[in-house]
Amino acid sequence: MTINKGWEKDVVDRLQKREQRAWKELYEAYSSEFTYVSLRYIRFREDVGDVLQNSFVKMFNAIDSFQYRGAGSLRAWASKIVINESLRYLRLSKKEEFELIDEDFPEIADEPEPVVNDIPNEVILNLIGCLPVGYRVVFNLFVFEKRSHREIAEELGIAESSSASQFHRAKKLLAREIGKFRQSQEVAYER
Fold first, then answer.
1. NCBIfam families from the entry (predicted)?
2. What domain range is 80 assigned to?
3. In 3D, which of 55, 24, 58 has the Cα closest to residue 42?
4. Per the domain annotation, does 31 fall within a domain?
5. pTM higher than 0.85, yes or no?
């Protein structure tokens, strides 16, 4: 599906008229991106389908209140719904314990900031997915959603300092895991 300059405004008008074809177009245009967004929060790929289905139901129910504010506003609005549904899923899921790791968690040694340009996105996504859920959520909200620690704290019901601490620990763990990945690649290359 090709998205041209006026497509988003047109599809919003059609979505608000409950045109079924417009919902199909929205799904075709953004489902891959929304899958990726949800996978940053949810570790198990098989659960992402449920989250996306719930997200599209929420979009359908809320489209009448959506106000088009220019190019990208539909994508941003829908992405926020996917993120919120992903967080909701984590809170309700029994597969992963959604809690923020307490302040007395053992300190992680500082790792140098890794270069990731040559690491495939899928590998990075998997490494992020292996972070403890609290670290992963804060990391994603801060890095990908550009939320401040104050906003994250309000959304998750934690102290701002806890958000910052979780983020820095997530970065350290991720740097360590990237280092391990690089070492495994070097060993494989030497064989």
1. sigma70-ECF
2. 7-92
3. 55
4. yes
5. no
